[in-house]
Amino acid sequence: MQESLSKRCTVASDVVCPFCGTLCDDIEVDVKDNKITDVRHACRIGTAKFFSVLEEGRPTKPLIRKNGVMVETTVDTAVKKAAEILKKSIRPLLYGWSSTSCEAHAHGIAIAEEVGGVIDGTTSVCHGPSVLAIQDVGCPSCTLAEVKNRADLVIYWGCNPMHAHPRHLSRYTIYPRGYFRERGHQDRELIVIDVRKTDTAKIANKFIKVDYGRDYELLGAIRAAVNGNEINAEVVGGVTKEEIQKLAEKLKNCQFGVIFFGMGLTMTSAKHRNIDNAICLTKDLNRHTKFSIMPMRGHYNVTGFGEVLTWQTGYPYAVDFSTGYPRYNPGETSANDVLQRGEADAALIVASDPVAHFPRKSVEYLAKMPLIYIGPHHTPTSLLADVFIPSTFVGIETGGTAYRMDTVPLYAKKVVDGPKGVLSDEEILERIYKEIVRGK
Amino acid sequence: MIEVNLITGRTIEQGASMEISKLSDEYTKATAICELDSEDMTQLGIKDGDNVKVSSVAGSVIVKARNATQGPHKGMAFIPMGPWANSITGTGSDSTGMPPFKGIDVKIEEAKAEKVLSARELIEEVYRGI
Amino acid sequence: MASLIIKNGTVYDPANNVNGEKMDIYIKDGKIVEKAARGAKKIDCNGKIIMPGGVEIHSHIAGGKVNSGRLLRPEDHKKLVMPKTKLTRSGSGFSTPSTFMTGYLYSKLGYTTAMTPAMPPLMARHTHEELNDIPMLDKGSYPLTDGNWFIMRYLKDGDIEKAAAYAAWLLRSTKGFALKITNPGGTEAWGWGKNCKSLDDPVPYFDITPREIIKGLAEVNEMLGLPHSIHLQANNLGRLGNYETTIDTIKVPSGTKNKDRQTLHLTHVQFHSYGGDSWKNFESEAETVAKAVNKTDNAIIDTGNVTLDNTTTMTADGPMEYYLQSLTHFKWMNRDVELETAPGITPFIYSPKMSTAAIQWAIGLELGLLIKDPWKVLMTTDHPNGGPFTRYPRIISWLMSRPARDEMLEKVNAAAGKRSSLASIDREYDFNDIATVTRAGQARSLGLSETKGHLGIGAHGDVAVYDIDPDNMDPSKDFKGIEKAFSAAAYTIKGGEVLVRDGEIVKVTYGNTYWTNPHVDKSLEKEVLSDIEYNFKRYYSVNLANYPVQDKYVKNPIELKIDAQKVGA
Asked: Are A314 and C90 a contacting pair at CB < 8 A?
């Protein structure tokens, strides 16, 4: 112990955490002999992610399925096989992208365009409905230190940052002192609206329990009250008229308010219409005061994938290149629909795990088709893969660009070398692309 | 047997164990669970840690019942996102791209004698050989 | 690098006083040279006109706001698509084209340089990522300084040298080219849902006025010796009666001089030349504004023409976009950026049948035609705010042809003829004027006239050839032919390489990104840095170390080092 203490380790500071859309950039990582020995400032999940690079039995060699069994192979062979599958496919699905760098995204999009495939991100099963709503009504928003410096009223609706974005409250919204909020949380009010009294709700100044699937109605009633209209019901979505009116007054009379929302709105009954109504409430409130709204984006670079895909094609997810130019029609060109209609005949999965996180019916189709998987760990998806090319962790073993939930871009730097011979997503995808266009 | 509304989503335990490895015991422990309201547990005649069978039109899965810590929410069950939850989530997307991950009608039965599969076992059993 | 002889064309090169002369142009190693190089490829341009490659001074083509515009408008993207070819990537978007397509479309028009004018410093990395994905052009971007807390505080304290040192640090940190000011002060006020309504309306809590911000930044700009002047979007964009603010604004930096160029570039002035006090009596004040521009010797403008399209408005002027959506009830994006600025986006349909839109169309042209010196009135649409840049050929035809304007005046709402002076203007641009307002003037305003916007020895081998025979074509009569010819360059040549032939892309290249790096006195810099560090920790949402744009984010950079050590010494 003494000896190890005397041997100095290096400390990487200002490290960007590659877990969630909060994209904390104040992490300190101790490294000794290219091994992470300590992680400071990160949350429980972030810390687990940094240490996961040390996972015992972590895959370092590409695997290819032969006679039903995965056998080790070289990167070259795996890349060739992947390219072959994609070239042969009539309607390949290229899915994932939320846990890798924008540099990797660019190669992925180039492949999708080249093979005329459908490319979709995890947005599709997370804030896809938010995108649909934004495309209908817009989105008044801001960067996170606007909230830190100005907000006196913060609402979390249908999201549970204490579990999913553990440092969101302490870095940006409730606890930090801001320029105009010198006393930190004492200068702010936290309201949580949810179907359960979540761990976030427990620390709120006010918790409003909404009946499951009734967010749309409740939002509508609040809008009515904000706009000075009568609410023609005593109770809406489990909330009394009086409480709704009181809430509306509170919203109108704050100095700077913000609504953060999550899957509680995007996944339930009315889906994008929930978000539409929440955004319209925010717009209404700007007639009285300053109000912003922001989706709680999940994976650390799910936002970045949307940005890159949008600037290169015009659309943020569910892009179909089968006509040679980008086409976009979520519900038709989104991953689960392409799968459940039985259209896709091969899949390239990068930096995500649809076998764990898609509904059974979609996974049944994934299991049937040639499946290429690129990612750092064995996962349920790698178990069903026909080609598995292990990659390094972006933001730990490979540098790369990521966009925070408020679209602030950061460079997530490398803190240790990856295992010998393991390439980054970016390098692997570039090689697959080159293999596909070779000889064309 | 009870009939409840199922929602799925993130928990910090699921998130942290997922980052360790989805093939780890920690992950199964954190994710192959169903959080139930104490009243619903009483009605089922089970206690925290007993196995239950959760079934929807899409299929069924065995998970461990847990006392809801973010309740009370009688009539609502919560399974962390992951392969167990998604063994029973539904089909379609109402033309929005978003599958039904919340608001699923499920039946829950006591299943003390049945085994909770690991992620690997679950994938092998359900999807391999399709 | 390729060598070329461009033979027999009729050359318009206003910076070198070449006005329609038949002459040959030689390019060697990417530059214009005196004599033909051995083995140089010949291009015969008999019966064609030749101009320097087009230079764009103000076009929202890259960055967070532009991408939000793309995200907001899938319906716009269905209107124009480009499939992938062997040579080019695919893309989509009429008013907010995707990045690859943006480069191709500009190149087809004969442009070789384009600057994107409004980069929130915190989002600079994003702007550069997009610029890297725009082929065919040299590029650059202007960091926004309008609501910047550091700048406002230093200027309020009268600490102009610290403001300059901070601005130098900001340019370096963002790899920015020039200082952009959008609705000075108003964007910080928008943090509270408020605005600065006149040059003397103080910013809440910061107790500084827009006038003081403009004046201070103009001084800062010249102290640092930046290539371009301050690039200002005046307060009150789009408001009734705003021409008074505009005229006032022109005078603000009049004490600041530069021997080579203006000290104020006032942008998209069409949106700032409005009279009337209700939308019913909305009228053009372009004549009044043009007079003020004619009189001043240190300000120039770009027009911000309206092209009567369904387009997407986007500006760092958040309160203005809010105001606009409150009129239209269209979808609306707002993207306030901490300590810096407040962009907003909303679609707008300039319907020719609508009186206001028709008058706006007229105002843009009035400015172009009433400002006597073409070097003082550069052609833009403030893409995509007044319309997409792909409409430039049409604007050129309007400027060159009174019959073209008359035909439009017949078609659009009659208010355009009644509440503007356009119907009474006879002036028609000649090719020399066009070359001035689309290239030479833009290059001079940017401070890049040594290498851009002309065809003299040493200039970049950036050349546009259009299929127009000036001896046999009367632009006034054949305005449709003018629009067609400028829509599809016969050749676009960049650095001596032919990128476009007969309006089709034949080669894809990636140009340079220009950025300026002024160095001030070291001890002053140190002092300001410690101030930055103190405030960053407290008020920004990112660590200071993660703020500056890393070198890797700029593809093919051209760093303009500037010695400004006298600042603080």
From this structure: no
Q: How far is CA C293 from the centre of its chain?
A: 18
Same domain, A110 and A145: no
Predicted ipTM?
0.97
Same domain, A138 and A282: yes
Dist CA C380 CA C393 (whole Å):
11
Nearest to C92 among A26, A325, A407 (CB): A325
User: What is the distance in angstroms between the CA of the first residue and the CA of the last residue of chain B?
Assistant: 31
The pLDDT score that the predictor gives to residue A356 is 97
Q: Which of A165, A98, A156, A103 is nearest to A126 (CA)?
A: A98
Q: State the angle between helix axes of C210-224 and C160-174 in degrees (0 to 180), rounded to the nearest 10.
A: 70
Beta strands in C303-404 (DSSP E): 310-315, 332-336, 344-349, 377-378
Omega prior to C384 cis, within 30 of 0: yes
Flag whether A58 is in a domain.
no
Asked if residue A146 and residue A84 are part of one domain, the reply reads: no
Taking the domains of chain B in order of start, what are their residue ranges?
A: 2-126
Tens of pLDDT along A21-70?
999 999 999 999 999 999 999 999 999 999 999 988 899 999 999 999 99
Angle ∠(C537,C542,C544) on CA atoms, nearest 5 = 60
| C563, C140 contact by CB (below 8 A) | no
Do residue A14 and residue C543 have CB atoms under 8 angstroms apart? Answer: yes
- What count of CB pairs under 8 Å joins A to C? 183
Q: What is the pLDDT of residues A105-162, one digit of tens each?
A: 999 999 999 999 999 999 999 999 999 999 999 999 999 999 999 999 999 999 999 9
The count of structural domains within chain A is 3
Looking at the DSSP bridge assignments, the partners of residue A11 are: A30
Instruction: Considering only the C-alpha atoms of chain C, give the largest distance between any 2 of them, rounded to a whole number of Å.
Output: 68
User: Does residue A89 belong to any structural domain of this protein?
Assistant: yes
Residue C551's closest chain A neighbor by CA? A411
Domain match, A290 and A402 both? no
Considering chain A, what is the average pLDDT of its residues? Answer: 96
In angstroms, the separation between the Cα of residue A43 and the nearest Cα of chain B is 9
User: How many angstroms away from the CA of C209 is the closest CA of chain A?
Assistant: 20
Whether domain B2-126 has CATH 3.90.1640.30: the reply is: no
Q: Which two tokens stand for residue C278?
A: 């209700």
Residue A25 lies in a domain: yes
Domain boundary among A16, A33, A52: A52
Alpha helix ranges (H) inside B1-130: 12-20, 25-31, 38-44, 119-126
| CA pair distance A383, C488, nearest whole angstrom | 54
Cβ within 8 Å, pair A360-B59: yes
| Residue A152 belongs to domain spanning | 128-295
The answer to whether residues C440 and C453 touch, using CB atoms and an 8 Å cutoff, is yes
Could A146 and C99 be called an inter-chain contact, meaning their C-beta atoms sit closer than 8 Å?
Answer: no
